[in-house]
Amino acid sequence: MESTLQEPALVAAKTTPKAITVAYWTATALLCLQLGFTAYAQLRLPQVAEAFTHLGFPAYFRVELSWAKLLGVALLLAPVPARLKEWAYAGFAITLASALIAHLSVGDGPEAWGWAAATGVLWGLSYIFWRRLQATPASA
Q: Which one of 93, 118, 128, 137 is least enclosed by Cβ atoms within 10 Å?
């Protein structure tokens, strides 16, 4: 027996490869802007250096982390093999989770760990849409 009910619009709507591409680049651009800004801040702003000291990290780690972030941003934006992008996403996931853990372990409030949490949301969106792009057939 066939149903006469129509499918809800959200179920019936097919996500096009173009929509996935636009969503991916929007999330990735915002993620890269955020990560690029934090890398710059870690290298140049004294209050950010003080925050690293507050968290118990040595000064060299702040510099090392900044350059790693800039390299990761370049990998996300450049046409590189998928394996390199996976490594960049993995590195950012570890960095963001570690930032949350570090801030929470010293008792910082949302004003301190909120940036890492918000960047984690952007990371998740970018990664999900990137994986969807990888699964989209080239002919679609």
A: 137
